[in-house]
């Protein structure tokens, strides 16, 4: 009798515990579902609204922030030029910083630089934009080069830390074999270690570029935006796709808002495309 | 000092030995490594330097003045600090359970294959540009909230201080929701790394005692991972505080103190981005720089605390982007 009571008490608590377990498992599923649902919602909506705006004229006309909107030809050119310059500046510098961290960074100074690189990745992009405005724009006037510098600064910590991580993964034997053959350290690095780590570094660079391409805040302070085609990156205001999306979002004209969706789709495909390529490179490397 | 540095790096020795290439290589590597330090300090200096006219004009009182009047040339920061902290905290509080839930799903529940796909999808959430979230927030989420959420939400919470007054689509609340989505990947990704770093023994010991999976997670895994998860949340808080474009588009840029989250407001980042092109000359633009400096210090300190917390608890290299 007493044993029976005890047993039934135990099963009741067991049932409660199992129920709690099921409930919390359901909660975890539900939260994951929310995240994926929002992702689908955003992407699907941008695709549906954006694709209806796309037409040959949309890609060949310049932007217009009034009336019945326009295309994004000059904005695409601007994004292309600025991102290209940012890659040219940011990627080599980031790789060198990564080499420093991997090769010479095993001391207190290296730890400090690593820590600063990590915190730097969290600095708001708008602060970098203001910085560039104060440093270059006040002297040179609006120009795309300053915008590219701002994006390069944002790319630096990402490229540096991924490069460091990849270089550290290169087996010591490869390096030692090269050094044993009498190659100096720098040649070992450039000819042996970096080519071995190339796929990983390129992945990191692609991710950094994808992030920079979507950045808008630094461009407000450097390229300003423009309704005209400007091919000179060193002088004059320029348009960019991300900046145009921002400007269109606050436009009172319905047609301009529509054009904003078209531009948002271009930006989204570009950024997600870069992400896919980066993953694909990393994945094929892993297969090998 | 330069010669001291040179001898520290064995440069002279390398040059004597004829290792010219290595000496140059080392100098270059050090230069670009230290450039990271230099640029961070230079950004801070530049923001403060350009803010000097505003400091001269308003002094330290700039921080707690709520005046923002371009006509009278009076500027303060308090309402923007309020906006930044309120939006960042709301979004962190909302992202915390969801992000940790996703991390728990990935580490404790999902099989390998699902894990990879879901991890990839959450990562995509982080890849979408801020300005696209802004466009979506203002044209899709705000009308959605007004039509489907307001009717039942307001009767429930409308009497609580901070939730009173009319419900606006462009509001602190909508901006916080979009921020939640944007920082979710950060919370999920870093929490996942931290949870994965919890030793297997910890789980097995608890399961061997007859516990359910939830009891194992809440009593054996979470206490172990607590520091790192708090670090992930702090990092997300810093990200939310510095986020600019989406918030600028959605929050309504009302440059005053708000008393309800359903009202319009402004954050430090949004007021800089939203007013920069109108700012003409002298004290106005200088005030925006000073606001930028305040934001920089705010996010930097949050980030430093977050990194220290994460570093103390998780093993292995942490990804600076917060990605998987």
Descriptive overview:
The complex is a heterodimer of chains A (288) and B (324). Helix content of chain A is 79%, strand content 0%. With 288 residues, chain A is mainly α. Chain A folds into two domains: 1-51; 56-287, MetI-like fold (Orthogonal Bundle). In chain A, helix 5 crosses helix 6 (144-169) and helix 10 packs antiparallel against helix 11 (254-287). Chain A is globular. Residues 1-6 of chain A have low confidence and may be disordered. Chain B is an all-alpha fold and 324 residues long. Chain B has two domains: 2-50, no CATH class; 76-313, MetI-like (MetI-like fold). Chain B is 73% helix and 1% strand. In chain B, strand 1 and strand 2 form a beta hairpin. In chain B, helix 5 packs parallel to helix 8, helix 6 runs antiparallel to helix 8 (172-196) and helix 8 (172-196) crosses helix 10. The interface between A and B is large, with 95 and 97 residues.
């Amino acid at each position: 009798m007493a044993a029976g009571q005890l047993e039934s008490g135990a099963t009741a608590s067991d049932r409660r515990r199992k129920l709690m377990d099921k409930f919390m498992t359901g909660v975890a599923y539900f939260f994951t579902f929310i995240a994926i649902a929002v992702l689908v919602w955003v992407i699907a909506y941008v695709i549906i609204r954006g694709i209806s705006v796309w037409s040959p004229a949309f890609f060949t006309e310049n932007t217009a922030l009034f009336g019945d909107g326009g295309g994004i030809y000059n904005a695409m050119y601007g994004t292309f030029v600025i991102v290209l310059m940012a890659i040219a500046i940011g990627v080599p510098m980031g790789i060198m910083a990564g080499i420093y961290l991997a090769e010479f960074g095993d001391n207190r100074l290296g730890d400090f630089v690593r820590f600063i690189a990590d915190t730097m990745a969290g600095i708001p992009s708008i602060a970098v934009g203001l910085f560039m405005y104060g440093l270059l724009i006040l002297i040179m006037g609006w120009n795309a080069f300053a915008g590219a510098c701002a994006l390069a600064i944002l790319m630096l910590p990402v490229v540096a830390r991924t490069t460091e991580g990849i270089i550290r993964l290169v087996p010591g034997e490869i390096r030692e074999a090269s050094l044993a053959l009498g190659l100096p350290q720098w040649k070992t690095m450039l000819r042996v270690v970096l080519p071995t780590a190339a796929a990983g570094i390129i992945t990191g660079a692609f991710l950094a570029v994808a992030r920079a391409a979507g950045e808008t805040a630094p461009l407000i302070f450097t390229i300003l935006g423009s309704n005209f085609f400007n091919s000179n990156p060193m002088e004059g205001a320029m348009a960019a796709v991300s900046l145009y999306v921002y400007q269109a979002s606050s436009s009172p004209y319905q047609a301009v808002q529509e054009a904003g969706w078209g531009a948002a789709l271009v930006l989204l495909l570009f950024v997600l495309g870069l992400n896919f390529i980066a993953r694909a490179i990393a994945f094929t490397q892993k297969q090998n | 000092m330069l010669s001291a540095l040179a001898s520290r790096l064995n440069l002279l020795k390398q040059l004597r030995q004829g290792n010219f290439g290595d000496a140059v290589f080392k100098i270059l590597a050090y230069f670009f490594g230290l450039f990271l330090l230099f640029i961070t300090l230079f950004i801070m200096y530049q923001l403060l330097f350009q803010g000097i006219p505003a400091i001269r004009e308003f002094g330290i009182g700039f921080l707690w003045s709520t005046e923002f009047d371009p006509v009278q040339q009076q500027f303060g920061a308090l309402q923007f600090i309020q906006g930044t902290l309120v939006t960042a905290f709301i979004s962190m509080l909302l992202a915390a359970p969801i992000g940790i839930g996703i991390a728990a799903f990935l580490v404790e529940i999902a099989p390998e294959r699902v894990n990879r796909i879901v991890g990839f999808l959450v990562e995509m959430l982080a890849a979408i540009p801020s300005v696209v979230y802004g466009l979506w927030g203002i044209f899709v989420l705000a009308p959605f909230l007004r039509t489907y959420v307001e009717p039942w939400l307001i009767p429930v919470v409308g009497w609580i201080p901070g939730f009173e007054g009319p419900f606006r689509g462009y509001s602190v609340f909508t901006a916080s929701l979009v921020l939640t989505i944007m920082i979710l990947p950060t919370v999920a990704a870093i929490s996942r790394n931290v949870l994965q770093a919890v030793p297997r023994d910890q789980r097995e010991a608890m399961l061997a005692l007859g516990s359910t999976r939830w009891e194992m997670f809440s009593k054996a895994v979470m206490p172990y991972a607590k520091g790192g998860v708090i670090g992930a949340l702090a990092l997300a808080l810093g990200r939310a505080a510095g986020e600019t474009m989406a918030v600028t588009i959605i929050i309504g840029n009302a440059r005053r103190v708000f008393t309800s989250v359903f009202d319009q407001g402004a954050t430090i980042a949004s007021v800089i981005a939203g007013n920069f092109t109108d700012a003409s000359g002298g004290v106005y633009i200088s005030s925006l720089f000073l606001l930028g400096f305040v934001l920089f210090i705010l996010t930097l300190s949050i980030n430093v605390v977050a990194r220290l917390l994460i570093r103390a608890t998780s093993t292995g290299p942490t990804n600076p982007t917060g990605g998987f």
